[in-house]
Amino acid sequence: MKKNLTNKYIKAIAGVGFVGILAITPSCKKSFLDVPAQAQQASQIFWQTSDDATKGVNAIYAGLRAWGNTAFPAIAIESTGADEAEKGSSPTDATFFNSYDTFTVDASDGQLSGFWSAQYQNINYCNQVLDNVPKINMDASLKARYLGEAKFIRALSYFRLVRAFGDVPLRLTVPKETNQYNIPRSPKATVYAQIEADLNDAASVLPQSYGAADLGRATKGAALGLHAKVAMYQKKWTDVLSLTNSVMTMGYSLLPNFEQVFRIANENGPESIFEIQCALVVGNPGASNSQYSQVQGVRGSKGGGWGFNVPTAALAAAFDITDPRRDATIIFRGETTPEGDVIPTDGDNPMYNQKSYVPFSLFQDGYNEGCQQNFRVMRYSDVLLMNAEAANELGNPTQAISSLEIVRARARQGNPAILPKITSTDQSTLRNAIWNERRVELAMEYDRYFDVIRQGRGAAVFGVKGWKANKNEIWPIPQTEIDLSGGLLTQNPGY
């Protein structure tokens, strides 16, 4: 039985004077989107009680599983440009993905606006909580925790925005006057500073863990881990090392079997730093709306998936042939999965993403295939590899090798013939080993594209696909947003 994250949620609407309140019925699955007919409640009436605060915070988590956060827009912006993934599906289906793979996308493509809108919707949910919960008379520690949860998720969405688009509008409150709606882009340094401030605040009040009813909420470890990644993108290596060192004292551990990390039974387990919670809500297919697994699932079989965002031959070749993570990351046409599903030999694509895979036996008629599958935002192995990279950059190869070895030791699964230990203390050699480990450990987890760019290797790795320096480090600002702003928002160079 999977644990309930919440039992109610509230749908907040940006810029208007009301919010829609939607109650749900608890079930044995994480069930925070079992949504009956919407009612309307004036915001002046709503933000009054501790229960209102709970609904408002639960709305934040409910929104994270939406299409723009985990499906086509996220795949286009955060995955398809990398050398590890390509469009997939049939050749004529959703061909717009090809423009991301070849870096020919223009500002009019709908996936840009879909991703942008999803992040600002998340931010709006967070800002409503941060604007309104402080005035509610309620338990002080719970109030502080709720504000910390909102700041964590606001920081996560701004991080996704700033690494995708560079300078972006920085909205920290819900607009109340007409002249507050249209704001310009803030420099990315300012955005990063706000992200770090939010994460500092979150880490100071969030607990290290929760009881069973609240599994999946943001924790202190999640705030520190995300802060480490934000610092890494700014090359603040001392901060990265300190933050990851802290997370490494919090009791996280690697699940012995890498393939099992991504199965539903092990969601929110000891390796989980933060996951977007998804669910099959019994009796409510409309609320079981996550399509993260469905859009990437095996195509042309009883698997029922759409077959997008598939691994490339380059990714398959990047693994040591003895590395069990290869078969745990990639479903190959004609194989039988560890869960017993036979993959047809005649599907459209030779490979599929196994990290998003849900065993076919768990599908239910009338529901999105694989809607139960959580979206892994950060795992402990990512923290270990950030720690290794920071230690190496700061001239401490002993600690770098130690943290790197923890990740590689799990991959060996007790077989010393697999993945020989890294012994070189040369900084450049060790740096490349850590980067390669990130590639194979975190493959198909929406990280590779931005990893390569922040490492300064965009032209070397992606140039063959059409990537150009001083342009493709970031994507174009959606033209719809520029138009809505009356030209106040400016376009990124080269688009």
Folded structure, characterized:
With 495 residues, this protein is mainly alpha-helical. It has a domain at 64-281 and 376-381 and 445-466: Serine Threonine Protein Phosphatase 5, Tetratricopeptide repeat, CATH 1.25.40.390. Helices cover 41% and strands 8% of the residues. It has 18 helices and nine strands. It has helices at residues 43-46, 50-64, 67-70, 72-78, 97-101, 110-132, 140-165, 188-205, 220-233, 237-247, 313-318, 324-329, 380-393, 397-412, 427-441, 448-454, 458-462, 479-484, and strands at residues 8-12, 18-23, 39-42, 85-88, 272-276, 308-311, 330-332, 351-353, 375-379. The strands form four sheets. The chain has a three-stranded antiparallel beta sheet. A hairpin with a 5-residue loop joins β1 and β2. α4 (72-78) packs across α6 (110-132) and α10 (237-247) packs antiparallel against α13 (380-393). It is globular and about 65 Å long. The protein starts with 7 loop residues before the first strand and ends in an 11-residue tail after the last helix. Mean pLDDT is 91; it is low at 1-39.
Topology diagram in text:
Layout: E1 8-12, E2 18-23, E3 39-42, H1 43-46, H2 50-64, H3 67-70, H4 72-78, E4 85-88, H5 97-101, H6 110-132, H7 140-165, H8 188-205, H9 220-233, H10 237-247, E5 272-276, E6 308-311, H11 313-318, H12 324-329, E7 330-332, E8 351-353, E9 375-379, H13 380-393, H14 397-412, H15 427-441, H16 448-454, H17 458-462, H18 479-484
Antiparallel strand pairs: 1-2, 2-3, 4-6, 5-9, 7-8
